[in-house]
Write a structure and sequence with these properties.
The radius of gyration is 22 Å and the shape is elongated. By secondary structure, the chain is of the alpha+beta class. Helix 1 (22-33) runs parallel beside helix 6 (213-220). Strand 17 and strand 18 form a beta hairpin. The longest helix has 12 residues, at 22-33. It has 7 helices and 19 strands. The protein has helices at residues 22-33, 63-67, 102-108, 133-138, 177-187, 213-220, 250-257, and strands at residues 10-16, 38-40, 49-56, 71-79, 81-83, 92-95, 114-118, 127-128, 131-132, 148-161, 164-171, 192-202, 205-206, 233-234, 245-247, 262-263, 270-277, 280-288, 291-297.
């Protein structure tokens, strides 16, 4: 664990391994880094691996921007069986001898690209009357989960070794890979479940910059001055690359960070701006009726 008098603020991009929950992974990272706060952008199922962005300290204030960003997955769907969880860890519910051909799979894929309606699986974190759907499912109760509109930017065929098909998907917020696999199978007159799932991208955070828990543990035990995690801890504003930057004077920045409105000219109304002063990221703000209004202030 890093022990110093400085607070730990920034993004750590974890390569989560299979067999661990996202919540447990976050708790381990928090303990190892000594951060006072930690949260993650987008839950990964225990059987899944890959990119799990973890916000530490003041970076937790920017989590919504990472959660809402595009995500990319590579996964394997196995045709011929349905499972209660929709993945390899569930119990078999139904089976079918119908195994689609590669041509049939390729022909069906375009139906799952764009704005589509999707029903989250019974084993999901959707809340039904204050309870998680997966808690109801574990008690043997079937939740009434409504379908909703989600966006799939691309769904790419990678390989087929019947009954297993490898696919790659880029999508927006709220898309369930397990539902994609099950719905694709239903279109083809059969069943399917997800046997492997790896997330390769969340917004700008890719697997190429992710670090395993094992590697992190080794690094944090290497003595080094201050709060330094070279090449690992990204800045608080790392999740905000797509948000415009507005540079203001130090005096105005101080007022803004105290909650005051700042009169501003020739700046169109906007919901999100990154406020920088003297090269330092200070706050998130919005422009309304000619005034700059603080939304989030950062103590870094």
């Amino acid at each position: 664990m890093i022990r110093n008098n400085e607070r730990v603020n920034g993004w750590l991009i974890l390569d989560k391994s299979e067999g661990i929950t996202s919540a447990k992974a976050v708790n381990i990272v928090k303990r190892l880094t000594g951060a006072d706060k930690a949260g993650h952008a987008g839950t990964l199922d225990p059987f899944a691996s890959g990119v799990l962005p973890i916000a530490l300290g003041e970076a937790t204030k920017t989590m919504q921007f990472a959660v809402d960003s595009a995500k990319e997955y590579e996964f394997t769907a196995v045709f011929g069986e349905s499972r209660d969880t929709g993945d390899r860890e569930g119990r078999i519910l139904e089976s079918s001898k119908k195994i689609p051909s590669e041509a049939e799979i390729r022909a069906a894929i375009p139906q799952f690209i764009g704005e589509i309606m999707q029903t989250p699986p019974q084993y999901s974190a959707i809340k039904i009357n204050g309870e998680r759907a997966y808690d109801l499912a574990r008690r043997g109760e079937k939740a009434d989960i409504k379908s909703r509109s989600v966006t799939v930017h691309s769904l790419e065929f990678l390989a087929y070794n019947a009954p297993e098909v490898r696919l790659k998907m880029r999508c927006g917020k709220g898309v369930y890979v397990r539902s994609i696999a099950m719905d694709l199978a239903a279109k083809l007159g059969t069943y399917a479940y997800v046997s492997t799932l790896r997330r390769t991208l969340v917004g700008k955070f890719s697997a190429s910059i992710a670090i395993s828990l094992e590697s992190l543990e080794k690094i944090v035990h290497i003595p080094r001055p201050g709060n330094d995690l070279p090449g690992i801890l990204l800045p608080v504003e790392a999740a905000l690359d797509d948000i415009p930057v507005l540079e203001i004077t130090t005096k105005s920045a101080q007022k803004l960070c105290q909650g005051q409105l700042i009169k501003i000219e020739n700046t169109p109304e906007t919901e999100h701006l990154r406020i920088v002063s003297a090269g330092k990221f200070m706050a998130m703000a919005e422009v309304r009726d000619g005034f700059l209004k603080p939304v989030r202030v950062f103590n870094i």
